[in-house]
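Let us work through a complete example step by step.
Step 1: write down the sequence.
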Amino acid sequence: MQSTILGINIVYFWTYFFVAGAIFIFMFMMGAVMSWSERKQSAQLQDRIGANRAAIPLPFGKKLALWGFINNLADAIKCLIKEDFRPQAYDKLMYNLAIFFAFIPAVLAVAVVPFAGVVKPAEFFQAWYLKWIPWLPEYFAANLPDFSFRVQVANLNVGLLFIFAIGGLNVFGSILAGWSSNNKFSMMGGLRAASQMISYEISMGMSLLGIIFIYQHIDLWGLVQAQSDLAWGWLPKWGIFLQPLAFFLFIAAAVAENKRMPFDLPEAESEIISGYFLEYSGFKMLLFMFAEFIEIVFVAIMLTTLFFGGFSVPWLMADGFHFPWGSYVPLSHASVVILQIISFQLKVFFFCWLLQQLRWSLPRFRYDQVMDLGWKILLPLSIVNLIITIIIVALGGF
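Step 2: predict the structure and record it as tokens.
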């Protein structure tokens, strides 16, 4: 009995180890795609060719440019081999610690996000692995048919609070980088980043309270499952349909939290010359910039999970499609899981594209306009949205 329990625990450990690795790789690959899109999408909007010079030489005079992806590789190599300049007078500990506060929260917070539903390996692979692995221990073979797992690293019952707690650490990266660099432009960027991020975190949190009141969950798995239900027998209960104002409030606050255009005052090149990470170079600067791209992906993941049903597909159940007009299309377990994964990724890709589109479509605000928008417009609207939501929930409207 003890050997059986130990064996199953080992299976769970390695399963979630590989799930965490796959999610980690996905975030880094998406960060690289966002770095490429930052150039190519802006080039399309501005009628330019974009990054296309760096290439791998091939025989017969050909070159492999991969639509500008090789430029990313060249930039990464350049940053890795570039000399690491440091200020003459700076706080060494905080200077290095700021990088971790800026980079780790964006990667760590995604651990509580479900990327797909429950996976049953025995049904997914039709138990073929029992034939492929003849040396499989007997207690594994006896218990693996009943083994299942969620495509989620950690299912915390306070997942949404965990995300806000981890995301709140990001502000330390900006303020520590600006202060420890001993540079007035860096310090100004750090102060701007701290005040901006703290201000918009309030509006962001208030906008999500309506979601919590409607679905009665603060764990992301429960939120996704609640959005899989149907309203009036045909409309998915996605957050965008039940909380449309909260969606626009959240996306505005999230872009400001991410310090992206038109809220990029902490890094304004024309004013404070890249702001809080001005005194960073080489690999350290690369981490700061790459963290910003990963944050774009995380914002897209949050929009997908909270307002567009996460991995859910309209009218898709565990055994296939159940359409409102009575039709039924049976699907295998593997097909359902693959559709869930594809659905989640397509939604994330769409929001990444949308956030990049906003980046190159809107002009930069003045700093007083940024603060006015956060405190005088978004915060009052989020409070009004919350009051209306509470009234409707109390009257049994949802």
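Step 3: interpret the result. DSSP finds 16 helices and nine strands in the chain.
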